[in-house]
Write a structure and sequence with these properties.
About 45% of the residues are buried. This protein has 58 helices and nine strands. β3, α12 and β4 form a beta-alpha-beta unit. The protein is mostly helical. It is globular.
Length: about 1250
């Protein structure tokens, strides 16, 4: 009320309340029936007796809707003793997989218990007085209870700055909580974990303040989203005193469990049911199993519900009719034939039994307005005899009893409420009006969909000419949903007739009212509706014609689109009022509760356009939904939306390829050349749906909207990247997607640009053989098809829907991620692309960037060319490209733009990679210039903008390790592991930081604690696959690391094993157990190296540095392993029990011949490669190893002198001599020297010096 800061209590007539209670009683027949059941009362008593226990407890009710699962659980929670002893926190029905969807009412209830949130809502009301979400908050039941004292903190200080994360994740952007600088600075992929942490702290705090145990009630635990699962599992593991009660719909035989079982017991019992499946153990294990909590520590009680027996079915039927039955005549209908008929009709299903009773009661009132008791039984028997036996027939029977306007409204609701979505009265009114119209300007409507809307671009659709056409979405629709007269239902909108009709659908038990904050979408209504039963919704929807369904889906999508457009305009005009906070808060509209975090709204719009068979608009909105989810760090669901968008595009292109367009000579020539180019890149691969496409086909398919087409290209590049990261072997599918994007770009390029590209690539294209690409129709075939072809010449007329010249791409940058991504896949993934494919692709990319004439793209292509030259053995050209990059690069001008366009500052990555190439060639000064260049730029890099800084740290640190400059290596690597966000190369960077720290400690003769912070290096020995086979299908990370760094993950892991061996040398007490552990580390290191050395392409040009380093490490570990085993044999020569383990150890290594022979072979191969390819640095290391191992002392010295002689610069020669000196000064062995044992050991282990 005006003049009051907080809501004011009010009173209503008691008679109305009595009527309301009577109506509620009618809706709660099943619930009140179950509240009387002994099973429910016994379980409630057990919960009360055992409250406050220390062990986490979960009660799991297994049964589908027909068994009354929801009613069983609700009957427990409605018991007064339970409600007074516990705080009941009911979750949303888990209809959708939206992040934290089911926790929305719980979080809302908790937040509104704090004065801070209530005061915040009052302040927001002044600026958003017409916001329905605000009204829904103010109407929440929490306001009927006292708030906590003023100043009560919601969470502890560490979590407080991150409370506003709940705005986006839980309240879809509504600014209930004030934003903070810490949230603004967070990386997207940090947000989910931090939000979970805040939610746990909030719920635990709420229970602590109330000093009561809590109950979290989730109806469908098998349907909750993955993020809610993670949240629920962590809440159970927290200190919160709560009980979790959940249910699931079981589709198979239930698990017959004892009253109380642990999860381990459930698994054992499941194995005894002879293969019968149940969801319960799998669901609970996925939620509760964690490294911090054994599933055996959770007490789980599983209650399996059965269908009602004949006796219980009749009791429920009679209970549901208690208001219609004459007084004291309840036994009148209790006859065997009546019981049998009711059970036959319902099959013991709870919901069907109650619906049957309600339908009879409604029909009886309608027919007679109430009858005497003597007539009641006869009416019931007649009703039961006339009622169909199937569930679908029963629903249709109930539908037929309804008025025509009720039927039409229910049909529209079945479209709006598909897939459990809720809908508003306003939506139904709007769609009813829209479907009664004859015509609509679909072109203008489609234009409005992305003007001021999801795309955010201010543009016109084609020429924007309004062309009135039937709104048939591809076919001719009836003028209304089921009725042909245009204004047949206008009378429904007079007075309160529409509201009463909608209420009747609730009375008929088809719909339920739901609160707005628990609904899926936004509306100006404070009350939303949802179908009570999804099966009933599906049956009603099936009563519509296909055309009617599509038309209605189209209008529903249009309704939500117009709502978003209004929000967007309000935000631009500032009608929402500034809040002085972040932009997201100020964009909340005053008219609706539609939020600025629009992923959910975009998704539902896309779904309806999808079902309406409008693939362009569906694709655009799926993509927009993906972008919004990506901004929240919800990568898996963002990927799912991208997949949906891609499927819409495929549908569109398949249809376009079937269009009969008159041949245009230039278009056909473009199609053949572009197809040949893409086939060259893809090794003769081209999707069938793409082979016959021309520019004219695409213009028709996209209705001339070049902006939608460009957005489609952006979607393709995003999807190609996402599928490569998110899916197993995704690089294969991702490559196809990138090829598709490149072909589409080539088809729609401006003619002059395409001519320039082909001119630059003429030497690569050669003679184009058209006949191999596609069959060309002869003249007679063309003439026969002439009547069915579309004349492309009409596209340019002003009377048409668009101009021909407008459908061209003038911004080539839209295609760059596709070129860059495909080259990355070819470089790092085991696709098997040959030199012809890569060379042509790289040169095409260069030609495209030259046309764009933007320097950041030139830098990116030069990075690619540099790696490509390196891959194919032309190191000189690779280093030349690198030098050009350094000459062009300017941090302030290029760095951030490279990050925004390509995800990383690839210039610095390339320069750092080429530094190790300089070093291996013995050009130490040039290598240092590269490293110094990168170090200067690293100071300016924003580590939150991309992972360039963290990745560069690892590469530069590894460079200094090659020079034995351990202090600098450790200093540079510091902080990689502490990086708060995950990134692709972080696993490698973390290992490099650990290696640098260990090498420094050993250099300073200090022991380290490897088990405290390092990886479990010996775990590889317990993996049979890792020991006995080589994985040829490694992660892309492993391949990329070997390409972009001087050594890969396996090499670093082997180096860490060597540090463990050297660390054990520093132990004060050394015995045979210590030596055996050293042996195991030798074996683990050799197994890691075998995984890298055994790759099919391990010795290609760009990975040869890693390959030689692995050979070098392998030789040293073999030599060390041999000496350690000799030491054990000498010490235990009288103990025959030791020898079997030694033989088994050698079998693990898979060595042919002796270890020393294998070590010599590794050194010889390394020497041969270093000489063949002039890797002078490796010649120094190999020469030193030959002399220390005693393999070929003279040859080793000669190799060192050869390397020194080939180094022309005196400064480089000085660095080489310094490296040799550092190697000589190492006290104990390392990855570059043999192991030297101490002179004495306990238990009589002698020195191996």
């Amino acid at each position: 009320l005006k003049g009051y800061k907080k809501p004011v209590s009010f009173f209503v007539p008691a008679s109305d309340m009595a009527e309301e209670r009577e109506e509620e009683e009618g809706e709660e027949d099943i619930l009140t029936f179950f509240m009387q059941k002994p099973e429910v009362l016994g379980l409630v008593e057990d919960i009360l007796e055992r409250r406050g226990g220390s062990q986490p407890r979960v009660i799991f009710v297994d049964g589908d809707e027909g068994r009354g699962k929801d009613a069983f659980i609700s009957a427990m929670l409605k018991q007064p003793p339970l409600r007074s002893a516990f705080w009941i926190m009911e979750a949303n029905r888990c209809y959708h997989d939206d992040p934290f969807y089911c926790f929305i009412p719980i979080v809302t209830r908790v937040l509104l218990s704090f004065p801070e949130s209530r005061d915040r809502l009052v302040s927001l009301k002044k600026r958003r007085k017409d916001s329905s979400v605000l009204k829904s908050f103010l109407a929440n039941d929490a306001f009927q209870t006292p708030a906590f004292p003023p100043g009560t903190a919601m969470v502890d200080d560490p979590q407080r700055p991150y409370l506003s994360l709940l705005n986006d994740f839980v309240f879809k952007g509504f600014p209930l909580l004030k934003s903070s600088l810490q949230v603004k600075r967070m990386k997207d992929n940090e947000k989910v974990e931090k939000c979970i942490e805040v939610l746990i702290a909030l719920i635990v705090r709420f229970l602590e303040l109330n000093e009561k145990p809590g109950i979290i009630f989730i109806r469908e635990m098998n349907s909750i989203d993955n993020y809610s699962k993670k949240l629920l599992g962590r809440i159970v593991r927290s200190e919160a005193n709560l009980l979790v009660i959940g249910g699931a719909d079981s589709t198979s035989a239930p698990l017959h469990a004892e009253p109380s079982l642990s999860l381990d017991d459930c698994g054992a019992r499941l194995s005894e049911t002879q293969g019968r499946d149940t969801h319960a153990p799998d669901i609970l294990t996925s939620i509760l199993a964690d490294e911090e909590l054994s599933i055996a520590d959770v007490e789980v009680e599983i209650r399996n519900l059965d269908l009602l027996d004949k006796e219980s079915t009749f009791k429920l039927f009679r209970w549901s009719l208690r208001r219609e039955l004459p007084h004291d005549d309840g036994e009148l209908i209790d006859r065997p034939d009546v019981r049998d008929k009711i059970f036959q009709l319902t099959g013991g299903m709870v919901h069907a039994t109650a619906q049957l009773a309600h339908t009879f009661g409604s029909r009886r009132k309608m027919d007679s307005g109430g009858a005497a008791a003597a007539d009641f039984f006869d009416q019931l028997r007649t009703f039961l005899d006339d009622t169909p036996t199937g569930f679908e027939e029963v629903v249709c029977f109930r539908f037929d009893q309804m008025k025509p306007e009720e039927q039409v409204l229910l049909k529209i609701a079945s479209v709006a409420g598909f897939d459990h979505y809720s809908f508003s009265q306003n939506l139904l009114e709007t769609v009813l009006l829209a479907t009664s119209r004859n015509e609509r300007s679909v072109m203008t409507k489609a234009k409005d969909e992305h003007d001021d809307g999801s795309s955010g671009d201010d543009h016109e659709l084609g020429v924007g000419v309004e062309v009135p056409v039937p709104a048939s979405v591809g076919v001719d629709f009836p003028n209304s949903v089921g009725i042909s007269e245009e204004n047949e239902f206008n009378y429904m909108l007079q007075g309160d007739y529409f509201e009463r009709t909608l209420d009747s659908l609730v009375d008929h038990k088809f719909l339920d009212e739901v609160n707005v904050e628990m609904s899926d979408l936004s509306s100006i209504d404070s009350v939303m509706y949802r179908f009570r039963n999804s099966h009933e919704q599906s049956i009603i929807n099936g009563l519509m014609l296909s055309d009617q369904q599509k038309r209605t889906h189209f209008e529903v999508a249009a309704y939500y689109s117009s709502s978003f457009k209004q929000q967007h305009r309000d935000s631009l005009s500032g009608s929402g009022g500034g809040s002085g906070e972040n932009e997201a808060c100020s964009l909340s509209t005053d008219i609706t509760m539609i939020p600025t975090t629009n992923w959910e709204l975009f998704h539902i719009i896309a779904l309806h356009y999808d079902l309406a068979d409008v693939p362009i608009l569906a694709m655009l909105h799926y993509y927009d939904s993906s972008l919004s989810l990506s901004s929240l760090g919800v990568r898996d669901q963002a990927h799912g939306r991208l997949l949906s968008a891609y499927l819409m595009l495929e549908k569109l292109l398949r249809h376009a390829s079937t269009l009969h367009v008159k041949p245009d000579e230039d278009g056909e020539r473009r199609r053949r050349i572009a197809g040949k180019m893409v086939q060259t890149i893809g090794n003769k691969y081209l999707k069938d749906s793409m082979k016959f496409l021309t520019k004219d086909h695409l213009r028709l398919a996209f209705s001339g909207d070049i902006f939608a087409f460009e957005k489609c290209l952006v979607m393709l590049t995003k999807f190609g990247q996402s599928v490569g990261v998110m899916e197993s072997d995704g690089y294969l599918f991702g490559s196809e997607v990138y090829l598709q994007a490149i072909l589409l770009v080539l088809l729609v390029l401006e003619d002059d640009v395409f001519h320039n590209l082909t001119s630059r690539l003429s030497s690569f294209l050669g003679q184009l053989d058209i006949t191999k690409f596609v069959k060309v129709k002869d003249k007679n075939e063309i003439e026969q098809d002439d009547e069915s072809l579309i004349d492309s010449s009409s596209f340019g007329s002003e009377e048409g829907a668009f101009f021909e010249d407008s459908f061209i791409i003038d911004d080539l940058t839209v295609s760059f991620p596709a070129f860059s991504g495909l080259l990355t896949f070819y470089r790092d993934a085991p696709i098997g692309a040959d030199q012809v494919q890569e060379t042509f692709l790289a040169n095409l990319f260069v030609a495209v960037t030259q046309e764009a004439d933007q320097m950041i793209h030139v830098l990116r292509t030069k990075c690619i060319l540099s790696h490509l030259y390196l891959k194919h053995g032309n190191e000189v050209k690779a280093l030349e490209e690198c030098e050009e990059i350094k000459n062009i690069y300017d941090h302030d001008t290029h760095s951030l733009e490279l990050v925004n366009t390509y995800g990383m500052d690839w210039s610095l990555i390339c320069i750092a990679t080429m530094a190790s190439t300089y070093l291996y060639r013995g050009q130490f000064a040039a290598a240092r210039r590269n490293i110094d260049f990168v170090k200067v730029q690293m100071v300016n890099l924003d580590e939150f903008a991309s992972s360039t800084k963290a990745m560069s740290k690892g590469t530069v640190s590894s460079f200094y390790l090659l020079l034995y400059e351990y202090e600098i290596a450790a200093e540079v690597a510091s902080g990689i592991n502490a990086t708060q966000y995950g990134y692709f190369f972080k696993p490698l960077g973390t290992l490099q930081e650990e290696l640098a720290n260990r090498e420094l400690a050993l250099h300073q003769h200090k022991a380290f604690n490897g088990t405290a912070c390092g990886p479990d290096l010996l775990s590889v020995l317990s993996s049979p696959e890792g020991v006995h086979s080589v994985n040829q299908n490694r992660l892309m990370l492993n391949s990329s690391a070997e390409t972009l760094s001087d050594r890969g993950i396996e090499s670093v892991l082997a180096a860490l094993c060597t540090t463990e061996i050297r660390n054990l040398e520093l132990q004060p007490s050394r015995n045979t157990d210590v030596v055996r552990k050293q042996v195991r580390y030798c074996q683990a290191g050799l197994i890691y190296l075998r995984q890298s050395l055994g790759q099919k392409d391990a010795n290609n040009h760009e990975r040869r540095k890693n390959y030689m380093m692995c050979l070098y490490q392998q030789a040293h570990l073999l030599y060390c392993h041999n000496k350690l085993l000799q030491l054990l044999q000498d010490t235990n020569s009288s103990d025959e029990a030791e020898y079997p383990s030694q033989v088994a150890a050698e079998d693990v290594l898979g060595i042919k011949g002796t270890e020393l022979e294998a070590a010599r072979k590794s050194i010889d191969e390394c020497k041969e490669l270093s000489v063949t390819y002039d890797y002078l640095y490796m010649q120094l290391l190999v020469g030193k190893s030959c002399t220390k191992f005693g393999f070929d002392i003279a040859g080793g010295e000669a190799l060192i002198q050869r390397a020194l002689g080939c180094i022309n610069s005196s400064s480089d020669r000085d660095v080489a001599m310094s490296i040799l000196t550092r190697m000589d000064n190492m006290q104990v062995g390392s990855t570059r020297s043999c192991l030297v044992l101490k002179p004495s050991c306990p238990r009589g282990v002698p020195s191996a010096a």
